[in-house]
Automatic annotation (TrEMBL):
<keyword id="KW-0521">NADP</keyword>
<dbReference type="GO" id="GO:0016491">
    <property type="term" value="F:oxidoreductase activity"/>
</dbReference>
<dbReference type="InterPro" id="IPR036291">
    <property type="entry name" value="NAD(P)-bd_dom_sf"/>
</dbReference>
<keyword id="KW-0560">Oxidoreductase</keyword>
<protein>
    <recommendedName>
        <fullName>NmrA-like domain-containing protein</fullName>
    </recommendedName>
</protein>
<comment type="similarity">
    <text>Belongs to the NmrA-type oxidoreductase family. Isoflavone reductase subfamily.</text>
</comment>
<dbReference type="InterPro" id="IPR051609">
    <property type="entry name" value="NmrA/Isoflavone_reductase-like"/>
</dbReference>
Amino acid sequence: MAPTVQIIALVAVGNLGKYVCEALIADIRYDVVKGHSLSPKYRVAYILTGTYQKRDWFSERNIHTEESDYSESSIRAILDASGASTLVSFLQAADTLYLDLHRAWLAACLQSKSCKRFIPSEWAGNVDDYPQLPKFYAESRLPFRRILQETAGIEWTLFNCGWLMDYFLPQHLTRMPAEPDTFPIDPNAWHACIRGSGDELQSWTQTKDVAAAVGELLAAPSWEPTTYVTGQWGTFNEAIRLLEAHYGREFEKTYKTAEEIKGAVDDNLDLWMVSGAAACPREKTLSQRDRYFRHINFATLDDMLKGID
Ligand SMILES: NC(=O)c1ccc[n+]([C@@H]2O[C@H](COP(=O)([O-])OP(=O)(O)OC[C@H]3O[C@@H](n4cnc5c(N)ncnc54)[C@H](OP(=O)(O)O)[C@@H]3O)[C@@H](O)[C@H]2O)c1
């Protein structure tokens, strides 16, 4: 019997979402481009707002798109019209906007005829052991996770990857916009602001590997409530030493102590990175690598740097 074709819908496709688009284009199981000649098991419908720049990115690649104002009724109509079985969110929004839109999209899934799988926009660190970090997630993602836990009739997973490893790259080598005030290493200005001791454990994953892992997970028959991938566990001090050796150049360094971070009003991810919350839980991550992602060779930082030489 021919496999039933599943339709995947992606919503709020920005920087990270575009990497996922590229990974799905490269994966022959997915039909992303209009008129694709293969017979894939999964098709992808992209859900967008009407910004012209974004439409250009997709139309240049001949990718299926739909427009939406992100309301519950609009998303539900698109899910029903496309027959989507899965909705994946990449929304980057704070506080109530994150919560309101994700509630609307969950309701749209529940009311739709076909969409019974949902990946909300998480894409961060260890949410099992540090659900309150980063602090600003406690007002947006934490309440939404509680809603998911109390909701029947839909399968969901919180997908997390630690830091995107691309932040170690100069801007011209990644689509992720540089975060010099947030990420401790600024590879463009060649400056490092070490938070805490710099020896606190982190995890990082190259963005293209995160994207490939999403493709694997979408094809998996069942999910766990949290899903983790990690290219490498390490510390920022180790990363600095590796980068300095690789480029033959020392970073200009400044420091922010753990006491300063704990006493600060603004969070800025500092507490998240010095508390261990940015490191995905090793045992679960490795067990899920074996279960879902054994076809992916996750790059270490060293692999990524050697790959761009
Ligand atoms: N682990 C890490 O190191 C790391 C790094 C970066 C991002 N992330 C996470 O990955 C996810 C995606 O990040 P990204 O960099 O891809 O995000 P992004 O490109 O900045 O935004 C994603 C989409 O969110 C929608 N959006 C943004 N602001 C909005 C607003 N005010 N109202 C309505 N929609 C809004 C936009 O969709 P439309 O244009 O279609 O409306 C945008 O394309 C987020 O959850 C982010 O926190 C994690």
